[in-house]
Specification:
35% of the residues lie in helices and 13% in strands. The chain has helices at residues 36-42, 63-76, 96-102, 127-138, 152-160, 185-193, 215-229, 249-259, 265-279; strands at 6-11, 48-54, 80-85, 108-111, 142-145, 167-169, 198-202, 234-236. It has an 8-stranded parallel β-sheet with strand order 1-2-3-4-5-6-7-8. It has a single domain, classed as Metal-dependent hydrolases (TIM Barrel). The chain is of the alpha/beta class and 284 residues long. It is globular and about 50 Å long. Helix 6 runs parallel beside helix 7. The chain contains 9 helices and 8 strands. Strand 7 (198-202), helix 7 and strand 8 (234-236) form a beta-alpha-beta unit.
Length: 284
């Protein structure tokens, strides 16, 4: 395990009794409260110095309520040093009012408007959506890209149009691990890494694998992510509690710790801590 405190760049917490999360319906494992005390128990094998909360796909009408609730949680546990909230970026310039509402929270650092779930594969290329994402730069905010491998081609075109917006690729772009396919995702990762405004979050990887996965099934995909983005533009994400569908946090951290064996301390600190501090402007 890391010998120093780490930053978790992908924390989810929720209380379905307070805010509705439609995607949790029928999921017996996840459709219950997952709160900070639960997180502390789940990550007891490592010292977590700071966390980045990432929106949990609440009912869209409740996005501001979710942000308000998370900000209150951060008052109780200041280790939540950053929040990536949801906003209706498809409104184009009209989203500014929503961004100003969210910016009342001092921990706001970015926006995630999930692309993966849209029926329209070209959603991220809609002019209004691109205009909405462009608004983030003016407000000092980043954009978390949440896609799967099907969206990589359009994501390259999307990112090319928005060089002024800092972007974070969630879950290494969700490659087709359960199918054992590397291409064209691997080549597209190489292209994506050429954009200097993009960093890669190493998170949610096991969730994309078959139920009987082994660490060796993940390693070719980790190899690509680290080879293309390097130790200077990759960072750890726990993706708890969603990751519980595939792996416990201690095992996920252990897999990464073993994969990174032999790296010098500067590189290790970059991945587990320093890159996250920079990407999400954490005050630690």
């Amino acid at each position: 395990m890391p010998a120093f405190p780490i930053v978790d760049t992908h924390l989810h917490i929720w209380d379905p009794g307070r805010i509705r999360y439609p995607w949790l319906d029928g999921n017996a494992l996840l459709n219950k409260p997952y709160l900070l005390p639960d997180y502390r128990r789940a990550f007891s094998s490592v010292e977590v110095e700071a966390m980045v909360f990432v929106q949990c796909e609440a009912d869209f009408a409740a996005f501001a309520e979710e942000a308000d609730w998370v900000a209150a949680q951060a008052e109780a546990d200041p280790r939540i040093g950053a929040m990536v909230a949801w906003a209706p970026l498809e409104k184009g310039k009209a989203v500014e009012a929503d961004l100003l509402r969210l910016k009342r929270h001092k921990i706001l650092r970015g926006i995630r408007r999930i692309i993966q779930f849209e029926d329209d594969i070209d959603f991220c290329l809609r002019p209004e959506f691109i205009e909405g994402v462009r608004m983030l730069a003016a407000h000092g905010l980043s954009f978390d890209i949440c896609i799967d491998y099907r969206h990589m081609a359009n994501t390259l075109r999307f990112v090319e149009k928005l060089p002024e917006v800092p972007m974070i690729l969630d879950h290494i772009g969700k490659p087709a691990i359960r199918d054992g396919r590397m291409q064209p995702w691997a080549s597209q990762m190489r292209e994506l890494a050429r954009f200097g405004n993009v960093v890669c979050k190493v998170s949610g990887v096991a969730t994309e694998a078959a139920k009987d996965w082994q660490a060796d099934d993940l390693k070719p995909y980790l190899d690509v992510a680290f080879a293309e983005f390097g130790m200077g533009r990759t960072m750890f994400g726990g993706d708890w509690p969603v990751t519980l569908q595939a792996v416990e946090p201690s095992r996920w951290i252990g897999i990464l710790d073993a994969w990174l064996a032999g790296r010098d301390e500067k590189e290790l600190r970059a991945f587990w801590r320093d890159n996250a501090i920079r990407a999400y402007r954490l005050a630690i």
